[in-house]
Amino acid sequence: MSGIGPERTAALAERVEAFVRGTVIPYESDPRRDHHGAPTEELVAELKDRAREAGVLTPHILPDGSHLTQRETAAVLTASGLSPLGPLACNTAAPDEGNMYLLGKVGSAEIQARFLKPLVEGRARSAFFMTEPDGGAGSDPSMMKTRCHRDGNHWIINGRKAFITGAQGAKVGIVMAKSDDGACMFLVDLPDPAIRIERVPNTIDSSMPGGHATVAIDNLRVPADQMLGNSGEGFQYAQVRLSPARLSHCMRWLGACIRANEIATDYANRRMAFGRTLIDHEGVGFMLADNLIDLKQAELMIDWCAGVLDSGSLGTAESSMTKVAVSEALMRIADRCVQVMGGTGVTTDTIVEQVFREIRAFRIYDGPTEVHKWSLAKKIRRDWKGAQAESGAT
């Protein structure tokens, strides 16, 4: 990947940061929220219009349709994440950012024109339908119960999905189902009467429009040319999406924790207790020092994994390590920020309490920490067996 180079990347990231700090942050107190606290479609559309005017809408995708390198993307997405509303405004939020990446990599020209273009232009939101309830696909996608079969020039899909981020209000859907050949991936227009939202539960996080819906799919008919690739190749395409998507989450939430730490630092330097500012009490000062250490380590992990992906590797193990290390580090940072700020830290007077909630959810979505560690342990075992076989040891 050629990208745009370090100087143009730095300039772009600075523009995104200036936009988020100057334009987006004042919207954090905007009351236009849905039943679980997420910004309404009206608010998101207004924010995207402001980003379009500022020239920072979808900044990670260039006018010719090419994508920034992962290292360049890290600078831009971290800047967009300085506010929970920033990724929505700049069109770098999940699941759209990951879906745009996937369609840009493997979508046909027809699919890109019909489904990718409105996403890049910020005119539509999308949803990725993979996770299932009732013992179906989740951390183990091989358990997929949603089925599909060929019917002339169409495929018929039946099943249920759960925790589908942004399904309510989405216009583009990527649906995974299993045929006799294996997993398949389809592009669909939304809404569709065959895709019915059963419920949208209230959840600990509140940054993503449309929530995390449970969905029933009843005899959904999809034209055959809306399948990505061939029947049975769905998991292959899922891997193209998942490693960069895990890393993108790390980038955005790093930005959020940088901001939370700024707020906590400002508080600790202003608030007096026992005759001194809080920062002068070691118990507080050391927490903020630990935050700086964790922020730097998270930044370095992201840069390392981005370099692996830029080399052309799928980076499955590397993205698992980075997701674990960064999500756990950011959780520590968010927790310390709340603690430093005491009672103020658990109020909605600042975004610190929201960042804490969002990071807690981040430790689960795109694979819980424990699943990634289990996957890495299996790799350690495979690598050991391979080394033993190569050396002729028994």
Automatic annotation (TrEMBL):
Residues 232-379 form the Acyl-CoA dehydrogenase/oxidase C-terminal domain. Residues 127-202 form the Acyl-CoA oxidase/dehydrogenase middle domain. GO terms for molecular function: acyl-CoA dehydrogenase activity; flavin adenine dinucleotide binding. The keyword Oxidoreductase applies. Keywords: FAD, Flavoprotein, Oxidoreductase. GO terms for biological process: fatty acid beta-oxidation using acyl-CoA dehydrogenase. The keyword Oxidoreductase applies. One of its GO terms (cellular component) is cytoplasm. Its cofactor is FAD. Signal peptide: none annotated. Belongs to the acyl-CoA dehydrogenase family. This is Acyl-CoA dehydrogenase. The lineage of its organism: Bacteria, Pseudomonadati, Pseudomonadota, Alphaproteobacteria, Sphingomonadales.
